[in-house]
Amino acid sequence: MKQIVVLICLVMLSAVSLAQQVVKPIKFSVLEQRYQQANDTTYVINFWATWCGPCVKELPNFLQLQNEFKTDKLRVILVSMDFRSKLETNVEPFVKKMGGNCEVVLLDEKDQGFVIDNVSEKWSGALPGTLIINKSKGIGSFYEQEFQYDELKKTYLNTKK
Amino acid sequence: MKRTILMLMLCFATTMAFAQSGYKVGDNATDFKLKNVNGKTVSMADYESAKGFIVVFTCIHCPYAKAYESRIMQLDKQFAMKGYPVIAINSNDYPEDSFDNMKKRSTEMKYSFPYAFDESQDIAKAYGATKTPHVFVLKKAGSNLKVEYIGAIDNDTEGSDPAKIKYVENAVTALLANKTPAVTMTKAIGCGIKWKKTT
């Protein structure tokens, strides 16, 4: 009996921890450190939010990019700019429904303004926005626009040249 | 020869138009004549006694605009009497942000300021507004309207940080004291203005 209780507890715990791992809140400094690494990986960082119509529309294109080039040194990170308080109520249910194989994080910063300039001076703060960066190749461009898949793929392939 | 010059001039004019990416602090802003929710039109020229304006590009559907709505109302209460009224402008081409919905929202919330519809989107383009909310604080200087501040209302959209920096409030307070605002330019996340499809 005891064993069963322990087992149930364990199952419940892992279920809880799995549910919590869908979208991680992340500080900007941590995110920046990741994409600033000179590790020959191309980071495609898409800034989006559940409330942003054009963002939601283009998200599948980013999932597709990661999928099509999964053997490449490519890392697509989807950074939700939703409020921290909306993580459990809006962002996680949305991401679960969306599925896919991309890493999704929520930018856990009250002052999002300082983040904008640190990502790129070209960014006005409108969503969606995408940073494509490969530190070891000296590539880093910001796109304040919505991407169709063909365009996104072409932009990514250009970084491989 | 005349034709070539004309062509060149035309080329130059279009290049200028494309290079125009909105105002910087220190530029002179254009006045406008836009349809207001009260059925009339609104221009800054209507405000003879104003010292300046808090022009806010905002809309109805955007969660960031929603989050700031009460703070925009508060800015007008705080500064209209002192000579810096709020003029809210919606430039979105988006069903939820229709003129009818603007009328409804402003009545419901009892806006104390005009809510103007920039249907052609020319004013948003001239100012360089890219998202909502996007604030331009203007100061009257003779017949000119000098841009004194561009950016966010404060650095705490969610409104959960008691130590937030109130950029617009600080800028207008400085202007009222005949000082230059300490911070003249900030950036914030917002919903991109929904532009009309050009094709």
CATH architecture annotation of chain B: 3-Layer(aba) Sandwich
CATH homologous superfamily classification of chain B: Glutaredoxin
The helix-strand sequence of chain B is: HEEEHEHEHEEEHE
β content of chain B, as a range? Answer: 15-25%
Organism (chain A): Solitalea koreensis
Pfam families (chain A): AhpC-TSA
Protein name (chain A): AhpC/TSA family protein
Signal peptide (chain A): 1-19
In short:
Chain A is α/β, with parallel strands linked by helices and 161 residues long.
Task: Please supply descriptive tags for the structure shown above.
heterodimer, A: 161 residues, alpha/beta, Glutaredoxin, 6-stranded mixed sheet, 6 helices, 7 strands, 46% helix, B: 199 residues, alpha+beta, 7-stranded mixed sheet, two-stranded antiparallel ribbon, 9 strands, 31% helix, Peroxiredoxin (chain B), AhpC/TSA (chain B), Thioredoxin_domain (chain B), PRX-like1 (chain B), signal (chain B)
Q: Can you put this structure into words, describing what you see?
A:
Chain B: GO terms for molecular function: antioxidant activity; oxidoreductase activity. Chain B: InterPro entries: AhpC/TSA (IPR000866), PRX-like1 (IPR047262), Thioredoxin-like_sf (IPR036249), Thioredoxin_domain (IPR013766). Chain B: Keywords: Signal. Chain B: This is Peroxiredoxin. Chain B: It holds the Pfam family AhpC-TSA. The complex is a heterodimer of chains A (161) and B (199). Chain A has one domain: Glutaredoxin (3-Layer(aba) Sandwich). Chain A has a six-stranded mixed sheet. In chain A, β3, α4 and β4 form a beta-alpha-beta unit. About 4% of the residues of chain A have low confidence. Chain A has six helices and seven strands, in the order αβαβαβαβαβββα. The longest helix of chain A has 19 residues. Chain A is of the alpha/beta class and 161 residues long. Chain A is globular, with a radius of gyration of 17 Å. Helices cover 31% and strands 20% of the residues of chain B. In chain B, α2 links the parallel β3 and β4. Chain B has 199 residues and is α+β, with helices and mostly antiparallel strands. The longest helix of chain B is centred in the N-terminal third of the chain and has 18 residues. The relative contact order of chain B is 0.20. Chain B has a single domain, classed as Glutaredoxin (3-Layer(aba) Sandwich). The radius of gyration of chain B is 18 Å and the shape is globular. Chain B has a seven-stranded mixed sheet, covered by helices on one side. A two-stranded antiparallel ribbon of chain B has the order 6-9. β5 of chain A pairs parallel with β9 of chain B.
